[in-house]
Write a structure and sequence with these properties.
single chain, alpha/beta, Heat Shock Protein 90, five-stranded parallel sheet, five-stranded mixed sheet, elongated
């Protein structure tokens, strides 16, 4: 797990006056440099604090050269600013301006920029995750799931082919009813394999655009994704869908991936405990006037109290290197909060773990234009 603090650049062109608070220094590594210099720049900085008497055209080229190295938020401390130059730099990155004459500037600045920088980091992590997913889709995890779920239909098809071969060897005329039974079974299993492949590929496909999607159909795809795999591990899986199907607006593949990740984590949690009871994983969806609520539950012993506050942090994992399945919980939460404007929370009681996803309802009747 990477524990390095994210970096900030503090640039000044006269005597530095900005004094970072202890909280800022606890969360970020601050590199202080004379404006115009480029020695020993950190390899990745998420913010630039520039303190200058007047911000004008003379600063643009230097800042743009820094943005080429790394995109970063700009925190500007200046008595005067050239509005045209400020607008130009604002088109390239997120900017905020403070006057050095402000009372309690250091405390106010640090208090205000910390959440802004943390939100910017979340966006960076999310964008990195999207890039990672585009490379990982259809690779190790997907192939593993396809292999597991195809094994049974392939075996059945093979057995029927052998059965037909034996009958044709022993009998001059194989009964048409027997042939019909075998061909029907082979056709059904082939269709099942095609459906498995389609659903797996849909989970990793590149986004084409947001659209309304059926909640119940999405849950059926997730269930199909895991059915055979969980049966092999003797885990009882249950989906409790909406009595009357409803639609969400967004990328269905994103929500599917979050659910797949949570179920995969639950499945893996059973590996670390000895169970003499029925292992269960369930997804239940309900709705009220304002939101759809998904409960993803397992009885794999719960999450240890020592790590409950950490599981949504970037890069945190309870798994060894190379054992991860898809996205992490940090990215799962970002998908829910950024793409669906919802929440993802953890609840633990006795030996049960519940992840609760709440997504605001959208009036899809106002979205009919997307079909045209």
């Amino acid at each position: 797990m990477d524990n390095a603090l994210p970096s900030l650049l503090y640039l000044y062109d006269e005597t530095p006056s900005f004094a970072p608070t202890d909280e800022l220094k606890r969360l970020f590594s601050l590199t202080t440099l004379l404006y115009g210099s480029k020695p020993d720049l950190p390899t990745a900085y998420i913010g630039i604090i520039l303190e200058t008497k007047k911000f004008d055209l003379s600063h643009i080229d230097y800042l743009e050269s820094l943005f080429q190295i790394n995109k970063a938020v700009l925190i500007l401390i200046a008595s005067e600013i050239d509005e045209a130059c400020y607008r130009r730099i604002s088109l390239q990155t997120q900017c905020v301006h403070y006057s050095p004459s402000s009372e309690n500037l250091d405390a106010i600045l640090c208090t205000e920029i910390i959440p802004m920088l943390q939100e910017y980091m979340n966006t960076l992590h999310y964008n990195e995750a999207l890039k990672l997913r585009s490379h990982r889709s259809g690779m190790v995890d997907t192939l593993n799931v396809v292999a597991h779920q195809w094994r049974q239909p392939i075996n059945l098809i093979s057995m029927e082919a052998i059965n037909l071969s034996i009958q044709s060897t022993l009998e001059e005329c194989v009964p048409s009813a027997s042939i019909q039974k075998s061909t029907t079974m082979i056709s059904e299993q082939s269709q099942r394999m095609a459906e498995i492949l389609k659903n797996v590929l849909n989970m990793g496909k590149t986004h084409r655009g947001k659209e309304p999607f059926s909640i119940n159909e999405m849950l059926e795809r997730v269930e199909l994704f895991f059915t055979d795999l969980l049966q092999r591990e003797r885990i009882y899986y249950q989906t409790l869908k909406l009595e009357n199907d409803q639609f969400l607006y967004g990328y269905s593949s994103d929500l599917e991936e979050v659910l797949v990740n949570l179920i995969a984590n639950a499945k893996d949690a059973f590996k670390s405990i000895a169970t003499e009871y029925t292992k269960t994983i369930s997804i239940e969806v309900s709705s009220n006037d304002t939101a759809f609520i998904f409960h993803i539950k397992d009885n794999a012993g719960g999450v240890p109290e020592a790590i409950r506050e950490k599981i949504f942090e970037p890069h945190f994992s309870t798994k060894g290197k190379g054992e991860g399945f898809g996205i992490g919980l940090h990215i799962a939460r970002l998908i829910i909060t950024q793409e669906f404007k919802g929440t993802l929370e953890l609840s633990v009681s006795d030996n049960q773990t519940t992840f609760i996803i709440s997504i605001p309802r959208t009036d899809t009747s106002q979205l009919k234009f997307i079909y045209s």
